Known about the structure:
Blueprint (H helix, E strand, L loop, with lengths): L2 H6 L10 H4 L4 E4 L4 H12 L4 E5 L14 H14 L6 E7 L2 E8 L15 E4 L2 E4 L2 H11 L8 E4 L7 H15 L7 H7 L3 E4 L2 E5 H7 L12 E6 L12 E7 L3 H12 L5 E5 L5 E5 L3 H14 L9 E5 L3 E7 L22 H8 L7 H14 L6 E5 L4 E7 L2 H23 L5 H16 L6 H12 L7 H10 L2 H4 L3 H10 L4 H10 L3 H12 L11 H17 L5 H13 L3 H11 L7
Parallel strand pairs: 1-2, 10-14
Antiparallel strand pairs: 2-4, 3-4, 5-6, 7-9, 8-9, 10-11, 12-13, 14-15, 15-17, 16-17
Helix pairs in contact: 3-4, 8-11, 10-12, 13-14, 13-15, 14-16, 16-19, 18-19, 19-21, 20-21, 20-22, 21-23, 22-23
Amino acid sequence: MKARSLYDSDDTSWLAKPDSEVESQWVERKRWTDPRELARQVSAFANGEGGLIVIGVGPDGSIAGLSSRRDATNQLLANLDNMLSDCPYEHRFVDAGSEELLYIYVGCQPDRVVRLANGKAFRRVGSSTRELGAEEIEELRFARGERAFEDRPALPLSDDVLDDALVDSFLRALRERNGLKLDQSRDDALRNRKLLARRDGVEYLTFGGVLALGRDPTTVLPGARLRFLRFDGAEERFGSERNVVKDQWFEGPIPRIVEKFREFFRTQVREFDRLGKDGTFRRDQEYPEAAWEEAVVNALIHRSYSIKNASVFVRMFDDRLEVESPGGLPPPFSSPATIDELYSNPRNANLCHALQYLDLVRLAQEGTRRMQHEMRAMGLPDPSIEEVAGGMRVRVTLANDIERRRANVDAQDAQRQWSAIATALQDDLAIYRRKALQDWQSLRDRGLKVPRAVIASALARLQTFQPAPDFNELSWVLQLLAAKDLEPIARDLVAWALDNPKGPQAELLVDALTPLDSVANEVLVDLEQGEIGPEGQGSHAGQDLAFRLLRARLKRLPLPDRSWVTRASAVALQYSCRQADALYEDIHGAPPRRD
């Protein structure tokens, strides 16, 4: 019996045989299946001679039934519609004793190739299902006289359905670029560009014509829209954690959508400063405009419009931009696709050609390579192109390399702050110097390295403190500097401290200089030579300060330096001051005995 007769009959006895005796060019049966596999079978029968698919029967002819899977079966059929691009089929449930089976009848489609949403097509060959290659698909299209979806009649032609300004721009470009001497009528021009189709003696604007020049494509294609979603973070979250911060729709013919989206999206991209090779700062957009615009235009033009209710989505995350469109990659491309693999193979060729006159379209390879070039020029990763949602959608991702850029921004900002600090430390007004020290403290707390220019500025400032610096400011500067930073002016600071030993600044300087071996050694030599005290530099108070420094140095010695300790002990006996006695006691454990 033919597949149609089997479908219409309630007799299920013929199913009791094994697969080898039942499955054929026109019959396929399954115990159960999934939407993708079922879509393959429907495509195969539609591109062959038609056929019947029976679900609920095992390979040996046993009735498994679907009674316990009724909800799953309904979902299977719903998913099947989303997996296919415009393929009519019939289905019904058939009683088989205490169980029921699902019959799906697929008629031959003589005027087109039936493909999955991802662009793949299959054909029934004997009892097998075989995927068709790109050349086989084109051959089958030619053999069946297929007309692309974009060429099908959409709306009866009238002034009300056209965007007059777009039509005028289109006709003007058509004349100028083709060197036409005589004006072409609007209808002739649209007809010549395959944007009009005749049905039953009536002129219709095609789907491609509606998308290019129509006032409101959503009247015939509800999904001919673009939705922009911006998220707070790097992932989409739902429910109580929903993180959408911007949600906006764009409608109209494709040129209007692009125009409105371009103006809107410029307000969404961030700017980053980066240091150029010439040492100057330049400001970059988060994404190159040519790259994101190309991705959006491609999504609107090359998507599958036979999936009428599906829209283009642009999702903006902290670290990337995703542009997602209905339909898979056109044959022969596979996912993921590289830029170099793609060449011009438009799904909607006539729409593409029409929009070229409105300066929206480049050939696929030129456009995708331009995206790549612009991203590389800004130091960003190449765009990625992949199929998602089971091959039903194409996603183009532009990454903004946010972590590196944030690090650069932080480094550049710190560089500017350090430069300002170095300058402010030399200001005559204390309020600016103290603000500089506050900023220095903040940057140091963030773990940032202090540039040499700032250290040099601080040292220069220290030298100007003499002879009566502000104590609080001096304390802050010394706190921010490491002892080794002080070494270039250490001798000058010690000399000032010994000349002014009674002020708190002197003790502060000595404490700061203690970690420097060179300072302690020079002070020891000066004491040995009698250059500190009433006969030399400073006073008795200066001697106390010098011995205080030696005591601090002694405590810092990791291992006893016998030579240095012996010299320090000897010099302590030469002076009669409190700190000299304390140094001797530190060394020997008892105060000195003076005759």
